[in-house]
Structure formats: C-alpha cells, structure tokens
C-alpha cells in the first residue's frame, strides 16, 4: 500500500497546473484542439487521460472530424467548465447518486482505492450524471454563451438544446443507418449507425436522446445510450420528462440493479465504450485495460494484427466489427511507428478491404496506409 498522502489527482495539482487546465478549456471553447491538448498534457497527471486522447483524435482528424463528433466533445467541455465544479457539477453528481446508488458506493466495484476518488469516477463514467448535467442542469445552455460561434455552427450544437430523453428497441443496422423503435409508440427512427449493435444485440432496449446532424440520415444519438430493460424503456418513452424519476423508482424498488448507470467511459467517436477495440482480442468491448501489462500501448498492435487478419478474409468478416476497428484506427496509441510495420504492398489488399468497409471517420487513416503501401514499389 502506498504511503503517499494524496488520495486524488486534484489534491496534487499546482497553481501552474490549474492555469494550464483553464487555458486548455479556453482553447477548446475556440475549437483550437492542438493548443488544448498541448496545455492539457502539460499537466503531468493528465498525460494518459482519456480526455487528452479524445483531443488527440480531433487533432488527427482536423477538418474531417464529423460535426456530431465535435458536438459530442463539446458536451464534455460543457461539463468540465471550472465554474461548474463547485456548485452545479456537485449537484449533478449528488442527484445521480440518489438515483442509481441507494445503498451508497462500493469503492472496489467502482475501481477506486480511496473514497475521495469516487466523485471523479462518477463524473467520467456515470451515464445519468452526464445526461443530467448536460441537459437538465444547463451545462449545454451555458456553453452556448461562451463557445466560439463558428465552432457551434460547425457542430450544430444549438439544435441539440431541448432534445428529449427516449426509450428505444434496438433494430438492425444496414450501411450507415441504424433503426431505433420507440418503445411506447412503435415509431421507427433511422439514425446514424455508430456501432451500437456491435455491443447491444438487436431486440434489446436503450435510453438516449435523438438529435439532428448534417450526416445522413439526419439523426444521431447525442451520447452512447444506456442499455436498459424493456419495461423501463417503455416507461421512459411514455413519459420522457420523468426519465430520471422513473429510473430512481425502479432502481430503489429493485427492478433495475444498483450501478446500472455506471458504465465504462464512452467514446466520442462511436456508440461504443472508450477503447472498445479490446473486443478484437477476445476481451469484450468493456474490458478495463488498467495498467502494467494491460496498457493500451502494449495491446493496440495485437488488435491491429487481428483487424488485418479479418480483412484478409474479406469484407463480410470485417463488417460485424467495422466500428470497433474504426475506433482502433483512431486510437492515439496506434502510433505511426506501429502502423508503419503494416505498410507493405503485400498488405495493400487488406487495407483496401478496410477502406471499402469502415465508416467514413476512419477512411483518412486507411487511405494514408494505402499510400504508404505503394511507397516500397514506387521507390
């Protein structure tokens, strides 16, 4: 057991660290991802943070980042505003705790060593806390007053204001379209497929908000949705404004289990968990990479080997995991050095299969690899 006196990262931040965090946030409000990530990663304790990884993905994609991805990231920025930390954010966490944790917190279940670490875990992983803070408690509204107007226009974020919660049955995905059926009315909605069915089977139910996007078919989930039972999804679909109260009643009555909203961290580039590519290694989409031998840098190369093996067998083998593979190719741990090992004419057909099968957000990386594969042959 460590003898160090600190029990949370916050307790270790210096004044210089706090300034870097504030300036990084200001850069995010401008859409200057490169400056934001530089400042964020200048804080020693953030060098392996998932927020830093999300920023690095936006830097990598540049202008090709889809508007819905930028909007999703901005919902995180809205929550991380320094002036929300002491009042509104604490209220959001407290409300979420009252809904989903009637018997309190088991720090071992939450992956914490100290009770002081619980708030940060709730902040990063609790679905109810995210939804309440962004929408019902006004984080998104506040962001619209301070963020760069052109950035908001590009993301289309103003159109997300007031989006109601919904309960849906997951339908099939074909091409780039996923069908979600309202659990109460039976109305079908065609939404942009971001890989939900790669983890949540067709026929299961989820909660989420449908919001407009400029990508076809014109609707997308605002965040990775919450898997839930049919009765709860139907109740929420029938009375969307009471969604949090419905969840509280059903959780306290034992109809849904405690910790139901404590998920792994969400990816902003898909409807899958952060680093969902662990599924390529047989570890499941929700596998916690942890530290040591399980660090992402030690496993990402193995995951790429498996993705290319699937590609060697043809598009039908890639298609069931195409969003998982896309997340892998966008992961900052998949460095140029690791990719260079797979840049050869003999592997060009595999990259071509990926180019024809993966969603648009991963195409620039695949097309880059196809160019690299040509270099040995052309000198």
Low-confidence stretches: 1-6
Arrangement of strands in the largest sheet: 3-2-1-4-7
How many distinct helices? 17
Q: Which band does the percent of strand residues land in?
A: 5-15%
- Structure summary, number of beta strands: 7
N- to C-terminal distance: 56 Å
Radius of gyration: 21 Å
H and E order: HHHHHHHHHEEEEEEEHHHHHHHH
Helix content: 40-55%
Shape: globular
Largest sheet: 5 strands, antiparallel
Q: What is the overall pLDDT average? A: 90
Number of domains in the coordinates?
3
Structural class call reads alpha+beta
Short characterization:
This protein has 17 helices and seven strands.
Main features:
9% strand, single chain, five-stranded antiparallel sheet, two-stranded antiparallel ribbon, 379 residues, alpha+beta, OB fold (Dihydrolipoamide Acetyltransferase, E2P), 17 helices, globular, 7 strands
Care to describe what's here?
The protein is an alpha+beta fold and 379 residues long. The chain has three domains: 10-158, no CATH class; 163-252, Nucleic acid-binding proteins (OB fold (Dihydrolipoamide Acetyltransferase, E2P)), CATH 2.40.50; 276-378, no CATH class. It has 17 helices and seven strands. It has helices at residues 15-30, 33-41, 50-61, 67-79, 88-100, 118-125, 127-136, 139-146, 149-155, 230-238, 243-252, 296-312, 315-318, 322-330, 336-340, 348-357, 363-378, and strands at 166-174, 177-182, 188-192, 205-208, 210-212, 219-221, 226-228. The chain is globular. The termini are far apart. Residues 1-6 have low confidence and may be disordered.
